[in-house]
């Protein structure tokens, strides 16, 4: 056993043993023996024993139908528990040096000192720090809220068991609690039976805030403040809010007919209710804590001379928050009798009295009390505001042009959709500058148009702080942006909202510069945006469209161009990154990904989506969330204070070639190979994925379409299930080989050494290659596809093997993930459980596809394998 991971392996072993007890109690020793046999064969097969691999395949193919569900359930739970142990290990007190690198903030300040970066510059960068994490419900998060709660409880038990001074009875009690939780998880539904509604997704997001972020944010700021004090001799301002949270859950209507204006209104109310509820819990504790009598004159006056002045003030806040909850509750339920009482409308209602208490405690020699829960509450007020999370609205560009088109036809002005871009822009700017209303009172628009207008009206009713940005997916032109501004204006929106075009296909990314340049040339627009522009860079659709290499280079060049356009116009740019968890959707370790962006691209802060299962892995536990926030903050500070080098012209030329060759290689397979679509449908569970109640959105934009109509998430998800992970590597290695054949090996090695963008790309490819499994992918082919499709599968697997050699050659490495031993160990640890699930999935797909009618037991077992492999692969969509 590798000593560096002994504590982790010990926890995995213990959790596995306790799960074994549960399986034995539920299904008897025979099933447990079967599970153990499969696990041991898998361990041996993963170590390279081909005889045991064959025995494993035979064992799984011979499982009777009634054993398939409990066996798949067992391996799925093994993976969930392994993930918990691994996640816990990163915050454990026994975390080895290899796993837990030195604190990122300490490392950063050491680098700044070495590079002679002045304290004033460092402090300015800290003041400008702006991280906005946007929680999205992109539907590869399979874990239900009840399961997530159990995972948090299991972590608490692991933490307790780590204490060496536990008495025998305390240890027994913790182990018994752990076994109870594992049994509860076993006997609960692993996956949902119904597809979640947008409201369910929003509540899941609020649960993440309540269970983790509410604790994590003040703790992160406390630690950050200590680092600043230690390294720069300065404190973090009390009202600093370097981290904020927004959400798409309940606001993202792109392709989701279930997100309506009514749903958005309800989610906004629920968000405020949850904020009031969480503040009320804090205030209740403060009432019991702040029983002091000594205070300054300001607090004495605020408390009307009461004997316990702090309590008196805080009891007033308790009443305000209780009333707020009651009013919002009535509004959510649509009650006719909404109480007519004062409610929380603005953060100053909380901030001012609590800040006065804080100052008074400091003045009266009670700083240690002030800097406890009261300070945490003040920090939360600045981060979460009245609304907990700000809601983004997202809609597809043609839905807005359809509104204006229907309107212009009604007004007898012709069909807006048929106009030239120049005429559209002229019309929109004229109407935006006009003081008269455009929408006629007598107009009865179609249902789809009415829905867009209703959404804009719901937004107009909100205070500005409730909303994040309005994101336009598939944005292609300046008129797409102006159209939304006009619809908001006509709906009575009195404040400036960030209307954010999302450039997501290869062509759109290449065209982003000209769209923003055109907008900057419009006087009305420049005046209206008050020198601030937000642009979203799409990762999913561009990678699906052109492959990861071409997409990555197009994203880089688009960001670079947008930074220059906005710099030249004197406009502050915020780039909003639509990353997913997987490589095919732009996922990468946060620190490396941020440092590989173009110079100056983080000057306006970072806004990035955190989706589905990645929210749980990175933000789901308070201590893990503190680590994640620390990583983001240190990476952004480093990128702004020690920017990466701008690429040399030679490097750019090489990237242009890599982009063109990889795009052609990718598209020649995905679009150009006659057998590709039938192969994709047969060799992956793509068709079956539609049955899994993952998220509230349909899996296809167009239910009749082929691969091109698939959303990027199920496209990636399907390929991760059969372990080929095709979209995350196809084209990349072939392009690198092409450049080597042209005699540029040394140039590639230089790019790898000196350019973070390029080295991060190769690092991401290495991680993908480590998660692929050629034998498993071949097994899916043999079990599921027609023999006529086998040559294509073989061709792709051969290409994968060649690509791995090429990348290792460029990096001068002997094996994958040499630079990331913890990541490699993590993948190895889970493979023992993932491989049986892969083989079970192939078997279940084989059996269910032979049946004339559905078998509920086999269908459920299949769904459990999908959930289990998802847990094992970690970044599936």
UniProtKB/TrEMBL annotation:
Keywords recorded for this protein, A-Z: Carbon dioxide fixation, Lyase, Magnesium
Stretches assigned to coiled coil: none
InterPro entries to which the protein is assigned, alphabetical: PEP_COase, PEP_COase_bac/pln-type, PEP_COase_Lys_AS, PEPCASE_His_AS, Pyrv/PenolPyrv_kinase-like_dom
GO molecular function, a single term: phosphoenolpyruvate carboxylase activity
EC numbers for this chain: 4.1.1.31
Enzyme active site: 138, 544
Highest rank taxon of the organism: Bacteria
Cofactor: Mg(2+)
Catalyses which reaction(s): oxaloacetate + phosphate = phosphoenolpyruvate + hydrogencarbonate
PANTHER family, sorted: PHOSPHOENOLPYRUVATE CARBOXYLASE (PTHR30523:SF6)
HAMAP family named in the record: PEPcase_type1 (MF_00595)
NCBIfam families: PRK00009.1
Quaternary structure annotation from Swiss-Prot or TrEMBL: Homotetramer.
Family label: Belongs to the PEPCase type 1 family.
Protein name, UniProt field: Phosphoenolpyruvate carboxylase
The organism of origin for this protein: Photobacterium arenosum
């Amino acid at each position: 056993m590798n000593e560096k991971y002994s504590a982790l392996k010990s926890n995995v072993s213990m959790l596995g043993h306790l799960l074994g007890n549960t399986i034995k109690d539920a299904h008897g020793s025979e099933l447990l023996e079967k599970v153990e046999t499969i696990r041991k064969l898998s361990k041996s097969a993963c170590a390279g024993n081909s005889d045991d691999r064959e025995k494993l395949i035979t064992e799984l193919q011979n499982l009777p139908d009634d054993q398939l569900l409990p066996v798949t359930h067992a391996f799925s739970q093994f993976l969930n528990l392994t993930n918990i142990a691994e996640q816990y290990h990163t915050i454990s007190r026994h975390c080895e040096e290899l796993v837990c690198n030195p604190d990122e903030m300490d490392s950063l300040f050491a680098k700044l000192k070495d590079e002679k970066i002045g304290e004033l510059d460092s402090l300015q960068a800290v003041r400008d720090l702006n991280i906005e994490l946007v929680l999205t419900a992109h539907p590869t998060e399979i874990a239900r809220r009840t399961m997530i709660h159990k995972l948090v409880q299991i972590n608490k038990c692991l933490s307790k068991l780590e204490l060496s001074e536990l008495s025998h009875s305390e240890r027994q009690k913790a182990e018994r609690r752990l076994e109870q939780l594992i049994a509860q998880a076993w006997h609960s539904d692993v996956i949902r039976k119904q597809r979640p509604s947008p409201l369910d997704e929003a509540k899941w997001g609020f649960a993440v805030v309540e269970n983790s972020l509410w604790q994590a944010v003040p703790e992160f700021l406390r630690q950050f403040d200590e680092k600043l004090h230690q390294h720069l001799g300065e404190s973090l301002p009390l009202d600093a809010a370097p981290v904020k949270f927004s959400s798409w859950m309940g606001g993202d209507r792109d392709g989701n007919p279930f997100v309506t204006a009514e749903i958005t209104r309800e989610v906004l109310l629920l968000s405020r209710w949850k904020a009031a509820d969480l503040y009320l819990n804090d205030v209740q504790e403060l009432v019991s804590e702040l029983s002091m009598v000594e205070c300054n004159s300001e607090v004495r006056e605020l408390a009307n001379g009461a004997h316990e002045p702090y309590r008196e003030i805080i009891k007033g806040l308790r009443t305000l928050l209780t009333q707020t909850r009651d009013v919002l509750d009535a509004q959510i339920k649509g009650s006719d009798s909404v109480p007519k009482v004062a409610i929380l409308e603005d953060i100053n209602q909380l901030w001012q009295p609590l800040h006065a208490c804080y100052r008074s405690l400091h003045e009266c020699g009670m700083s240690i009390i002030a800097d406890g829960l009261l300070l945490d509450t003040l920090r939360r007020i600045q981060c979460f505001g009245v609304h907990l999370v700000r809601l983004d609205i997202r809609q597809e560009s043609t839905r807005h042009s359809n509104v204006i088109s229907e309107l212009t036809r009604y007004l007898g002005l012709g069909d807006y959709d048929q106009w030239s871009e120049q005429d559209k822009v002229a019309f929109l700017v004229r109407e935006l500058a006009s003081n008269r209303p455009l929408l006629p009172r007598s107009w009865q628009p179609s249902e789809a148009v009415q829905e867009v207008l209703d959404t804009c009206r719901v937004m107009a009713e909100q205070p500005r702080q409730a909303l994040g940005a309005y994101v336009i997916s598939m944005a292609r032109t300046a008129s797409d942006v102006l159209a939304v501004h006009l619809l908001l204006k006509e709906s009575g929106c009195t404040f400036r909202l960030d209307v954010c075009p999302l450039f997501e296909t290869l062509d759109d990314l290449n065209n982003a510069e000209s769209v923003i340049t055109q907008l900057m040339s419009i006087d009305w627009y420049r005046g209206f945006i008050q020198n601030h522009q937000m642009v979203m860079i799409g990762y999913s659709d561009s990678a699906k469209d052109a492959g990861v290499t071409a997409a990555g280079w197009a994203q880089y060049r688009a960001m670079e161009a947008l930074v220059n356009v906005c710099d030249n116009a004197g406009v502050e740019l915020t780039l909003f990154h639509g990353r997913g968890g997987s490589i095919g959707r732009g996922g990468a370790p946060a620190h490396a990904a941020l440092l590989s962006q173009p110079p100056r691209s983080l000057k306006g802060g970072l806004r990035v989506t955190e989706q589905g299962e990645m929210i749980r892995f990175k933000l789901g536990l308070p201590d893990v969330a503190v680590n994640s926030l620390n990583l983001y903050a240190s990476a952004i500070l480093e990128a702004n204070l020690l920017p990466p080098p701008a690429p040399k012209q030679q490097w750019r030329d090489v990237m242009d070639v890599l982009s063109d060759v990889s795009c052609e290689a990718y598209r020649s397979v995905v679009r150009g190979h006659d057998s590709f679509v039938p192969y994709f449908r047969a060799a992956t569970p793509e068709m079956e994925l539609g049955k899994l109640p993952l998220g509230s959105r349909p899996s296809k934009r167009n239910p009749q379409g082929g691969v091109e109509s698939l959303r990027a998430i199920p496209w990636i998800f399907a390929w991760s299930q059969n372990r080929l992970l095709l979209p995350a590597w196809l084209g990349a290695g072939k392009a690198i080989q092409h450049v080597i054949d042209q005699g540029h090996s040394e140039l590639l090695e230089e790019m790898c050494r000196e350019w973070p963008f390029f080295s991060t790309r190769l690092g991401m490819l290495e991680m993908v290659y480590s998660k692929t499994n050629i034998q498993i992918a071949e097994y899916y082919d043999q079990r599921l596809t027609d023999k006529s499709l086998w040559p294509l599968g073989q061709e792709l697997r051969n290409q994968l093997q060649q690509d791995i050699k090429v990348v290792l050659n460029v990096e001068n490495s002997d094996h994958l993930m040499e630079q990331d031993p913890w990541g490699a160990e993590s993948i190895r640890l889970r493979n023992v459980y993932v491989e049986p699930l892969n083989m079970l999935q192939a078997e279940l797909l084989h059996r269910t596809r032979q049946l004339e009618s559905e078998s509920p037991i086999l269908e459920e077992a299949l769904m459990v394998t999908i959930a289990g492999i998802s847990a094992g692969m970690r970044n599936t969509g």
